[in-house]
Design goal:
Oligomer: single chain
Pfam families: Peripla_BP_2
Structural class: alpha/beta
CATH superfamily of the largest domain: Nitrogenase molybdenum iron protein domain
InterPro entries: ABC_Transporter_SBP, ABC_transptr_periplasmic_BD
Helix content: 40-55%
Protein name: ABC transporter substrate-binding protein
Organism: Companilactobacillus baiquanensis
CATH architecture of the largest domain: 3-Layer(aba) Sandwich
Shape: globular
CATH topology of the largest domain: Rossmann fold
Largest sheet: 6 strands, mixed
Number of helices: 12
Radius of gyration: 25 Å
Low-confidence stretches: 29-37
Family: Belongs to the bacterial solute-binding protein 8 family.
Order of helices and strands: HEHEEEEHEHEHHEEHEEHEHHHEH
Mean pLDDT: 89
Length: about 300
């Protein structure tokens, strides 16, 4: 009887110890999470604001934008245009971290340094870079559950598109990136739209071993490759850029000789779904590119 009572006492003490340890562990994790989430963060581009919203992050500042702002940030302070954020507004918010994108580093780096603002550049160059950025922020702010949920959904959609097209002949696709003023570049698979075309089991026309996102247009190579589909994307002022593209195409007979023009497979894409950087519209953009390129 004495042994049985002793055993019960030991089990009771062990139970109390386990419960206490679990409570302390949970409390410590909660404090850790709260500490990380209490960091004051400013996102300076719309794409990064979308990423933060997907991860359920709190933000102290967001960029001015013409596009719909996520509900959680309706009353969040604005810090100016993504290409030229206001250093004064950012400093006034006194954030722990400011996030921008790698493509703006050369344009904005000196301003941040001169104003002693701690800025971190995130890469949204391609679909894979988007996944890396999601995981980077999720790890820092304890939001992995949200990152995993979105990335798993994205991977399922990419696999679905690839499986659907695995028996189709790959099409040669030329991606052009236009800018206000009439200038334009040729996009590679190192660009966002180029990576989406690649994920649909098609071929982006580009020189071998291309390193950059965008390169100068090589008309000789384009004529040789004979693109079956041409995708035109505007960096800004889409109406102006689209008009410039059409003027260029109609005034240069070489374009009209390409299969894409002869078969009327030239498409003009616009933001926010189709952008120069990867964003949270990626699944919609993937399915849109798939429909455009793999149209029967």
């Amino acid at each position: 009887m004495l042994k049985r009572d002793s055993s019960k006492k030991i089990l009771f003490i062990l139970s109390i110890w386990v419960i206490g340890f679990a409570a302390i562990f949970t409390l410590n994790n909660l404090k850790k999470t709260q500490a990380k989430q209490s960091d004051s963060v400013v996102m300076t581009t719309y794409a990064l604001t979308q990423v933060a919203d997907t991860l359920h992050m709190d933000l102290a500042g967001i960029p001015n934008t013409q596009y719909p702002i996520p509900k959680r940030y309706k009353n969040t302070d604005k810090v100016g245009a993504p290409n030229a954020p206001s250093m004064e507004k950012i400093k006034k918010l006194n954030p722990d971290t400011v996030y921008s994108v790698t493509t703006l580093r050369s344009m904005q780096g000196k301003s941040y340094k001169a104003n002693k603002i701690n800025v971190t550049y995130l890469n949204l160059q391609t679909v894979d870079h988007l996944k890396t950025t999601l995981n980077t922020l999720a790890k820092r702010y304890d939001k992995q559950v949200y990152a995993d949920k979105f990335i798993n959904k994205l991977d399922r959609n990419i696999l679905k598109v690839k499986q659907k097209n695995k028996n189709n002949d790959s099409k040669k696709v030329l991606v052009l990136f236009g800018m206000p003023g009439g200038g334009y570049l040729q996009a590679t698979t190192n660009s966002y739209i180029g990576s989406l075309v690649k994920d649909t089991n098609n071929i982006v026309i580009q020189p071998k071993n291309s390193q950059g996102e965008y390169i100068s247009v090589n008309m000789e190579q384009i004529q040789k490759e004979k693109p079956e589909v041409v995708i035109c994307l505007a960096h800004a002022m889409p109406e102006m850029v689209e008009k410039s593209f059409k003027e260029e195409f109609s005034s240069n007979q070489m374009w009209q000789e390409l299969p894409a023009f002869q078969n009327k497979r030239v498409y003009y894409l616009r933001e926010p779904v189709y952008s120069s950087t990867a964003n949270m519209n990626v699944i919609k953009a993937l399915n849109g590119i798939d429909k455009i390129v793999n149209e029967k």
